[in-house]
């Protein structure tokens, strides 16, 4: 069956800028940054510094800053769309891997049960040597984990950052403070 073409409003909602729509100048910048990021003789920190410097130089040189910033924003959307597509593909591949693992586990359990049932605990085949061995017995706790003696319990300590933020907004704490570094975030609409 053929799918209906999306209506005009649907197309506009889903429309993401294509790489070829962003501009040749941005493609040039992408090439420069890709060369920096592919350099094997630089550390990650050096690559970040050089890429930021190249972006800054590109923004300052030549044409209108606003136009270049708009091109960069379009490219950011393009990269975000690629990342989302790759995340979706990795989710799909993870599901397929889980299915394959479950199938292998079921077959392993079936083969183990059949070997034990028939009393054949060792088999030497062309592709594999099989042997069945007893596992150590499972551990069963007869009380709640909280009731165990201390030396049998692992305790983890994790700060509650949300609560600390709330208190810091109202008063000072000697063991915590807000960073003096100002950070910004970019919104692309």
Automatic annotation (TrEMBL):
Superkingdom assignment: Bacteria
Name of this protein: Siphovirus Gp157 family protein
């Amino acid at each position: 069956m053929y799918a209906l073409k999306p209506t005009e409003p649907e197309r506009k909602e889903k429309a993401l800028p294509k790489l070829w729509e962003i501009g040749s100048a941005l493609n040039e910048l992408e090439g420069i940054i890709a060369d920096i990021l592919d350099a094997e003789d630089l550390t990650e920190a050096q690559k970040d510094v050089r890429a930021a410097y190249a972006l800054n130089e590109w923004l300052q040189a030549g044409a209108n800053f606003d136009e270049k910033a708009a091109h960069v924003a379009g490219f950011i959307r393009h990269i975000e769309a690629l990342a989302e597509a790759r995340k979706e593909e990795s989710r799909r591949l993870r599901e397929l891997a889980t299915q394959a693992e479950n199938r292998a586990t079921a077959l392993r359990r079936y083969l183990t049960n059949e070997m034990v049932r028939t009393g054949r605990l060792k088999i030497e085949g062309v592709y594999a040597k099989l042997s069945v061995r007893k596992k150590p017995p499972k551990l069963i706790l007869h009380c709640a984990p909280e009731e165990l003696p201390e030396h049998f319990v692992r305790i983890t300590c994790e700060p509650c950052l949300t609560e600390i933020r709330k208190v810091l907004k109202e008063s000072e704490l000697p063991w915590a403070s807000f960073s003096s570094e100002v950070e910004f975030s970019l919104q692309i609409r």
